[in-house]
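Protein phosphatase 4 regulatory subunit 3B
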Amino acid sequence: MSDTRRRVKVYTLNEDRQWDDRGTGHVSSTYVEELKGMSLLVRAESDGSLLLESKINPNTAYQKQQDTLIVWSEAENYDLALSFQEKAGCDEIWEKICQVQGKDPSVEVTQDLIDESEEERFEEMPETSHLIDLPTCELNKLEEIADLVTSVLSSPIRREKLALALENEGYIKKLLQLFQACENLENTEGLHHLYEIIRGILFLNKATLFEVMFSDECIMDVVGCLEYDPALAQPKRHREFLTKTAKFKEVIPITDSELRQKIHQTYRVQYIQDIILPTPSVFEENFLSTLTSFIFFNKVEIVSMLQEDEKFLSEVFAQLTDEATDDDKRRELVNFFKEFCAFSQTLQPQNRDAFFKTLAKLGILPALEIVMGMDDLQVRSAATDIFSYLVEFSPSMVREFVMQEAQQSDDDILLINVVIEQMICDTDPELGGAVQLMGLLRTLIDPENMLATTNKTEKSEFLNFFYIHCMHVLTAPLLTNTSEDKCEKDNIVGSNKNSTICPDNYQTAQLLALILELLTFCVEHHTYHIKNYIMNKDLLRRVLVLMNSKHTFLALCALRFMRRIIGLKDEFYNRYITKGNLFEPVINALLDNGTRYNLLNSAVIELFEFIRVEDIKSLTAHIVENFYKALESIEYVQTFKGLKTKYEQEKDRQNQKLNSVPSILRSNRFRRDAKALEEDEEMWFNEDEEEEGKAVVAPVEKSKPEDDFPDSYEKFMETKKAKESEDKENLPKRTSSGGFKFTFSHSASAANGANSTNSKSVVAQTPPASSNGSSSKTTNLATSVTATKGSLVGLVDYPDDEEEDEEEETSPRKRPRLGS
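Structure:
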């Protein structure tokens, strides 16, 4: 049978209560004459032999578990299980079983109803009556007791009865006395039986029995019984570990004896669950659910008792922040708090709320500020874990503390700055701690989890604080590692220093990538705060220096930062990019990458494709004018040709608008619009400079009104000559691979020099014709002349239509301002 739905594994339970795999085959349910009834047959898929032939008995309790298991008992000590490959197959066979037994297939245990009356009788009977007769607690009866305990595990009702019997007779304590006798007599067989008995009693999953077994007087004997696993040649030494190796550390002496007892008990029970007991199989996974709950509630109780003892916690905090406390003691105190916070995760939300508020009231944050700045790596690591619990619980609480602190302290010792410094100074080559801290910082500066109340808006208050007090600390490594880029801004543009600037150290590169990831997050979520910061620090120019890094992942981080900025489609950013000529390093990276088809190549092309698809006109004009000559050879994608097409379509639209306006209106309007645009733009940039006291982009000389042009013809000729020589320098250099290579102007003014005849940013204009791009000396010169001619023409109304047509063809740089 090839049907995978009916494909099963057959398991039987051995004497050691372990499941043995009897083989894989295909199951069917058919009438078997010999057994006189519907039966389950499993034939081996290897040779077709019969692996299982089992009559579906009307009184047998079948259990369906986890959607793909059917378990049942054939006889008192013979348990069987079918594990199906597919749920559908399990459901089909389950329906057949339920059909034979007259049960609804929605049940998970077919004999619940049969046992109902028995259950009712069981509940009605007085607790004192013995529902299961336990053998007398003697050495020669241990085997019988072990068989009884293991045999009831498959039946929930018999387990209940056995648990009640064990509880009523104080049987467990008698068993543990036998254990001491067996150990003294070195009765190995008896000790093996006791292992089975105690393990079986644990699997009864009864909290009342756990209370007895895990009491101070019994727990070490229970652990002792569990040392003698029959499967092991030598018994384990669990008691020796718990009494001698495992040391209970009291950072501050705990006076409450009940609390001490709870802590000891929880540790030992956790040890039994995690170390001594084998990992439960799929059939036993629910057997220890009560044990898990027992540990859970103990932890809740410990946290509550410690939390209520404010004297104890106050003492811990006092020692933690006391300069006289020695390093070892402080390490233990921090580790205690880390464990304490981990325990608190077991609390219900309202209790956890009270817990962290208690810690905040006692001064956890100022204490963390001190210990996070310490030299001891273990202490710092534990403090970071505690800080992460606090940030996850309530970012607002941490933000509020930091803002209050800023009113009293210097920037250097602010908690957030301490966290940033720890991130920057992480000594781990893989920056594990830095990655964790970066995640916490991101949570703190994420506007999504900031509150807006009627009195105040946390978002604006905290972000103002962060950008004034903390942002300079975060960006310091980035600015330091790209600092050579800003030196000698007025030097020859062709000096290509960039390749020596980028950090080649892998750890530094990783750190810069983390910082860039955080800054990219800020670009997406912080709008005007980050916009002002980028413009005032000329940050994008500095980031793009990293496009030359030998670490491709860092170059990609820099590119991703720029891509997020362009993705906002914000004209302020676009104007900043075009004025600063900031596409140049990106295009250089694309050309340097050559013909390699890699992630960097794809990411750069995606950036330009986004500009094309979204039709960002100002950027399209800038790219086509300045870089098309270098990019037109890239034909394996249509991106750059598409940009040129968009550009030309926009130019045609502007020309059509020009033609539809009477010439006298055009002249006056042209003159007014040009001035208005220039003044608006100048005002925006100057405002920014006045606010920050430092220019974002070097101020651009304001072009003179067209009326003054005839009086300054000589000056124009001088400018023309200077432009010629400058254009020679700015010609794209041909690289070894045959493509063009631009040199990255290191200052905004140098970048704008490339467009000196047309001194305003491309943003303020509608795109001119591609033939006038600054990538060619001759075309630039032609543009200078035609633009000037346009200036003269714009002052006078020429009735001659032919001259107007000629003017429109030759003056695409000035004319489009009409429609912008």
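The longest strand covers residues 19-32.
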